[in-house]
Design a protein that fits this description.
Blueprint lengths: L3 H14 L5 H19 L3 E7 L4 E2 L2 E2 L5 E7 L3 E5 L9 E5 L5 E10 L4 E5 L22 E10 L2 E13 H4 L1 E4 L11 E3 L5 E6 L20 E5 H12 L7 E2 L2 E3 L11 E4 L4 H4 L7 E5 L2 E2 L3 H9 L6 E8 L2 E8 L1 E2 L18
Length: about 350
């Protein structure tokens, strides 16, 4: 059966292909397509309310208010942004689109992609929106950021485009749709009514829970690809907290974009040390992906988790050397003193 969203998109494409100059028809169909896409996903977008928790995170004031989540499993599993729970609330309530409210528990946290998995008890299966394959997402296509905060009865939306893919070291889709605490945890949807990703604050320079918050509503927003979330969902369901992995090396250059991926130092007793990697080795492949620049190596490692086993090929004295490294948890960095006393916007 062809969905309403698909029919509307087909009609819009037909008008474009026919070379029509009827602007009103195009504008109407465009609006209908966007509305249909939102309607397709809205039944799986939930409102999340938290009670209690810390009022301050460090020197920053944490504003309270409703947030958003996305149903990812009919049995009551819901993905949301880690940012929404960083103040450790005493209780979590999920309000479904039908108006019913359910207590939720936080099952696990993905500290690499900054999402959490919640669980509620359900009497009947919950609707799950279709997922857009990562390989089909293109720069310039429509992107709709969704949330359920202003009105519990209807989803709020912001419209933009996909402005980049494979951002934040391969962990995010970038969009210029308005993204803020109002829709963190909600889906980024394509014009066909498929979930491309889950909206979260992220930054390429830091993995702190507040990182990327400063860009809200700026035209720079990020969504963790839904396909990547699905890949780790079984581990999260088991209650396994996932953390960023590290191989334990430093490169000879700080220029990520043009620098050659040559090892400048190996931390003793690190995964790289145990795998036999040495200073002067040049990365050639990681898990079959060709490595040409330092950024390529950074992306392949940063997108994986502690405990993952990674096949690495390096060039040493002109010869290919293969090894396997089991990534470890990144060592904690010393906390930097906060500058000023910024207020986190209330949701």
């Amino acid at each position: 059966m062809i969905s309403k969203t698909t029919k509307t998109v087909c009609m819009l494409l037909a008008l474009l292909c026919c070379g029509t100059t009827v602007a009103d028809d195009l504008e109407t169909l465009e609006q209908q397509a966007l509305t249909a896409a939102v309607d397709e996903v809205a039944p799986s977008v939930v409102r999340i309310e938290t009670v209690g928790g810390s009022e301050r995170i460090g020197k920053m004031v944490f504003g309270t208010g409703p947030t958003t989540g996305l149903v990812v499993d009919p049995e009551g599993y819901i993905i949301s942004s880690r940012f929404n729970f960083m103040n450790n609330p005493a209780s979590i309530l999920v309000r479904l689109p039908d108006g019913s409210r359910k207590p939720a528990k936080l099952v696990a946290t993905d500290h690499n992609r900054m999402v959490v998995l919640l669980k509620i008890d359900v009497e009947q299966p919950l609707p799950v929106a279709p997922i857009a394959p990562l390989g089909e997402i293109r720069v310039g296509q429509w992107a709709i950021g969704m949330g359920r905060t202003y009105d519990a009865q209807r989803a709020n939306m912001s419209v933009g485009i996909v402005s980049a893919t494979e951002r934040i070291w391969g962990k995010a889709i970038q969009t210029d749709a308005a993204i803020s605490p109002n829709n963190y945890g909600g889906p980024l949807v394509d014009i066909r009514g498929r979930v491309m990703g889950v909206l979260v604050p992220l930054s390429p320079q830091s993995d702190n829970a507040l990182a990327g918050m400063e860009w809200y509503d700026s035209g720079i927003g990020f969504a963790v690809p839904a396909e990547q979330i699905q890949a780790v969902l079984p581990r999260l369901k088991k209650g396994e907290d996932l953390r960023p992995g590290t191989v334990g090396i430093a490169f000879t250059t700080e220029d990520m974009n043009t620098g050659e991926p040559v090892i400048g130092a190996v931390r003793p007793d690190s995964p790289a040390d145990k795998a036999g990697l040495k200073k002067g080795d040049r990365f050639v492949e990681i898990e079959g992906a060709e490595i040409r620049r330092t950024a390529d190596a950074k992306r392949e490692i940063a997108s994986r988790y502690a405990g993952d086993k990674v096949k690495i090929v390096v060039l040493r004295d002109g010869k290919r050397v293969e090894s396997t490294a089991e990534l470890s948890v990144r060592p904690k960095r010393p906390a930097r003193p906060a500058q000023g006393k910024p207020m986190i916007p209330k949701r």
